[in-house]
Amino acid sequence: MTTLTIRLPDDTAARLDSLARSRGLTTDKLVEDLSARAVAAWDTENHFRAMAATGDIKQALGILDRLDAEDRQVGADL
């Protein structure tokens, strides 16, 4: 496992701590979970962009639009 040091504004770090506690998680676990979601979204986007390059571009971009909308909703739920 890799240790990563990040610099955040104090208020952001405090809000992340509060969010983690509200979900019964450590801040490390919360950041790990959020990072995994971001990487999964990126992988999915790249997959559909590759499909768009070889297939129906409008259909693939439509799928990406729906995924973006879902991602925005997940972010709003946090």
UniProtKB/TrEMBL annotation:
Pfam families: RHH_1. Residues 4-33 form the Ribbon-helix-helix protein CopG domain. InterPro entries: CopG (IPR002145). It comes from the Bacteria. This is Ribbon-helix-helix protein CopG domain-containing protein. The lineage of its organism: Bacteria, Pseudomonadati, Pseudomonadota, Gammaproteobacteria, Chromatiales.
